[in-house]
């Protein structure tokens, strides 16, 4: 199983030619491509990746790719267009022309193949770094670019994809590295669950399993939040909670206030639901409240979104006084608050002040929590705490969306919390994150003094690196990728930003940071050099 | 654990007063309500359920409820309005008036309480059957009725809620009863997984875990579908697949063709994305293709949605000839097809013809599958098979929605398929469903001859009961609920229907059907009687 899992970390595609096979590599490739095209998995009009990219993905050299493509071209299965790259041919059109011996196998490789191979060599090397296939096409072609939902930001799409590319040092990833996750303890949980016959894994109640809601309720009480199981909705991670709130509670065209920069700018949950953002500044104690009332009235704000504890991406911890102030100002306005508590329990030095929800006596705060940042992202278990009518409305939408989170995950999560595994894991995790944070800070001191400033996070995952001079962040991202680094640039969290990077000490190991940070510093210096 | 699970089947709320406590029942109730109100879980303006409903839910008699409400009223925490029911008072407004001794406990119960109790007795019994709390209110009030997403149909909301009410015979539920689910085999899967240390439960690749995609690929091959792991996207159940397609592929305002009636009419995934439906008639061999081309052109249809095998709700099996015809007609139009294969493997007599996806060489068919109908709904594992560019687009949206299905569920599902558990379970399940189907048909013969006609399903879950004369279905639904039956009425699947019921032999046991079907027949006869 461990082996299997490691395979899943492999980049991109599930197939590569087998050097040990009797069949030549180019023939293996053309056979594979032919299957893809004939089965419709690669529909007519779909653009193939540039040759250099194909070589990289398939682990073969250029001449092998050229030969394979030549064979496919000879069969009329693909066609190269000057400047337009290589595309899957429209077989029906070609068949109607009588030009293709469709269905013959790959036995012949005539002159078209040769000339095609040459053509490819001059036109096939676009600037794209896409993994194959690149362009949707065929009868689904236009749809892939349509639909109501926004596609992810290009940088986010790149990050989602490149996270599965091996060998990259991921300097900003907001997820604990596999080594920090509790493989053994989770195995003990499963063993415990399998000691007696499992309950049938039916659909759970709309709010989620009562067992897990009770366990979450006890957990919340430790943080000063009194919420009984009827006020708790189990979600598939906190992200789904945001999604449900976006589509379920907010009318199209409404505005929410939020910290700027914010994690929320990097996802499309709210924008896709037609919700507008109005970002407010922070200082080292958290969101500044002085402009809040004015902005709330001006924009007729529907809600305030805040990450008071160990803010993403800045790491800022809102202090107790600011929390009181915030509750007062928003209380006067009757402004609902969405409190994202994802990092709350991940304090490193001392526990944070009480969450906003613990200060709420009016049912004005919705509070989000998750097991993804500590126990296991892959459990996909989060929760929303709020007034019963609100969580019931959200539960109704959740039932329409996916019929609830996995019952198996809910069983395991309840056991995880009740069995004390969570508390035990958190203690160990905090100690390890403290070491990692301190190591990261020492490296920054060594390599970024005079180049940037940064905060000392008291918890959570992030260091917000503020460069002394702006750099073109998209260029930096690309240069870093070439140098083997994956970055979370500041423009993900504030579109107009050109001076920040989100660094994380939870994914890359201290050794990787030791390799990666000096490289990053070098790239930044180069880009900041006048005339570069 | 089994105990805990059984408790979760309990209706509605997680709390009821304890008759063994020294505290009187009414005081337990008023304390509980007070906590709810003071914590904001029940926000100002929220309407409480009618007294009769409160009695039912809390398991107490009327005078207990009246006393408890009287105490709360005396404290100014709730207010009764003639005709408007009872609502949570706005504490801030009340406090400003100086009318409330907020924070005092429940020690006094003055004259207001008494008069309130009386007032309630005359006005508190609305027609609603809602479980408390009914009406959202407070600062979230308006939002609960807004948002982009449509709320579920009232009947669907009723069904979702009443499914957790104990003692109801669920005549139409489309999910295997807990007794048909593989509790023991699933426990063996978990035990197998916990035999060695689990891989860390990180986020999976956007398409889902490679291990599970490989297992699904092998499974699909048994049904004639050639799809390698790169063409497969793992979803949190087939419903999420529909959701992703609705928001990810179809432009707002586009039209899809589908069978009428159809399951798709009962969910809001597509309507919420602004997609219109154009329903086409069926005969006993499946969707009629004669009007298809004309309608597709007239409506500029973006897609055809079909459930060719054991259609929901009619149970119809599209025969091989009709499948060929359908592929031909839609091929000529270049019309993409969304094939819902949820019931495909649940044949009872002989395997169904090849799925449409197996006939597709152009990448024109998206195929949906799921483990929810056989292995376990609670695993929340389904898949979409289609052209790579399409599944990659959907994967991108999925990453934005919930970061993928539970890794633990994916691990278990892969083991379930690879370990042969699935095939073994299917064989047993088919034998048991055959018996249940035959028992249901015999009961229909006994109680519905001369009242309705029905099909003999060759697979799947459903019998489509066609009443000889129309009845007001919403009235029938309510009358049935009072008589202890939960119905899936035909209007869920075709808004204009007044003559059909979806019956299912997979949830209610043969004994329950034996009790429930004659009651249903009686109710129908009564409603059809002239002048009723």
UniProtKB/TrEMBL annotation, chains A, B:
Gene3D superfamilies xref list: Aspartate Aminotransferase, domain 1, Type I PLP-dependent aspartate aminotransferase-like (Major domain), Winged helix-like DNA-binding domain superfamily/Winged helix DNA-binding domain
Pfam families xrefs: Aminotran_1_2 (PF00155), GntR (PF00392)
Disordered: annotated segments: 1-21
Cofactor(s) essential for the protein: pyridoxal 5'-phosphate
PROSITE patterns for the chain: HTH_GNTR
Keyword tags: Aminotransferase, DNA-binding, Pyridoxal phosphate, Transcription, Transcription regulation, Transferase
Annotated Basic and acidic residues bias: 1-10
Domain HTH gntR-type: 23-91
GO MF, one annotated term: pyridoxal phosphate binding
Keyword Transcription: yes
Family membership: In the C-terminal section; belongs to the class-I pyridoxal-phosphate-dependent aminotransferase family.
Record-given protein name: GntR family transcriptional regulator
Organism: Paenibacillus riograndensis SBR5
């Amino acid at each position: 199983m461990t082996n299997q899992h490691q395979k899943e970390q492999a980049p991109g595609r599930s197939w590569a030619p087998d050097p040990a096979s009797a069949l030549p590599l180019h023939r293996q490739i053309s056979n594979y491509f032919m299957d893809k095209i004939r089965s419709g998995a690669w529909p007519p009009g779909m653009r193939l990746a540039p040759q250099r990219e194909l070589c990289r993905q398939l682990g073969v050299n250029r001449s092998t790719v050229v030969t394979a493509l030549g064979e496919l071209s000879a069969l009329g299965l693909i066609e190269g267009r000057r400047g337009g790259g290589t595309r899957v041919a429209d077989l029906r059109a070609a068949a109607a022309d009588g030009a293709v011996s469709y269905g013959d196998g790959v036995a012949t490789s005539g002159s078209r193949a040769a000339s095609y191979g040459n053509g490819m060599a001059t036109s096939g090397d676009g600037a794209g770094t896409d993994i194959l296939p690149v362009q949707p096409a065929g009868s689904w072609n236009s749809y892939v670019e349509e639909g109501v939902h926004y596609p992810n930001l290009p940088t986010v799409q790149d990050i989602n994809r490149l996270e599965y590319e091996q060998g990259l040092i991921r300097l900003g990833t907001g997820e604990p590295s596999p080594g920090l996750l509790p493989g053994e303890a989770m195995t003990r949980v499963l063993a415990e669950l399998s000691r007696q016959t499992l309950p049938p894994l039916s659909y759970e109640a709309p709010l989620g399993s009562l067992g897990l809601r009770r366990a979450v309720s006890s957990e919340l009480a430790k943080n000063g939040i009194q919420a009984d199981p009827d006020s708790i909705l189990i979600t598939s991670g906190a992200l789904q909670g945001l999604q449900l709130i976006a589509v379920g509670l907010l009318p199209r065209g409404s505005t929410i206030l939020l910290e700027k920069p914010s994690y929320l700018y990097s996802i499309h949950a709210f924008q896709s639901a037609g919700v507008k953002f109005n970002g407010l500044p922070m200082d080292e104690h958290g969101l500044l409240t002085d402009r809040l009332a004015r902005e709330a009235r001006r924009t007729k704000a529907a809600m305030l979104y805040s990450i008071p504890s160990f803010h993403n991406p800045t790491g800022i911890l809102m202090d107790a006084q600011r929390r009181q102030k915030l509750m007062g100002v928003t209380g006067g306005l009757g402004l609902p608050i969405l409190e994202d508590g994802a990092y709350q329990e991940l304090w490193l030095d001392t526990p944070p002040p009480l969450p906003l929800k613990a200060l709420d006596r009016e049912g004005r705060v919705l509070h989000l929590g998750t097991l993804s940042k500590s126990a296991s992202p892959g459990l996909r278990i989060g929760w929303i705490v709020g007034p019963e009518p609100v969580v019931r409305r959200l539960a109704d939408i959740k039932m329409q969306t996916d019929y609830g989170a996995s019952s198996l995950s809910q069983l395991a999560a309840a056991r995880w919390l009740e069995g004390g595994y969570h508390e035990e894991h958190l203690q160990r995790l905090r100690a390890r994150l403290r070491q990692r944070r301190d190591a990261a800070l020492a490296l920054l001191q060594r390599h970024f003094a005079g180049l940037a400033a940064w905060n000392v996070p008291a918890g959570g995952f992030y260091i917000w690196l503020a460069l002394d001079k702006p750099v073109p962040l998209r260029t930096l991202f690309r240069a870093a990728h070439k140098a083997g680094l994956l970055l979370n640039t500041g423009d993900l969290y504030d579109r107009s930003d050109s001076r920040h990077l989100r660094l994380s000490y939870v994914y890359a190991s201290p050794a990787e940071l030791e390799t990666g940070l000096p490289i990053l510093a070098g790239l930044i210096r180069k880009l900041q050099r006048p005339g570069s």
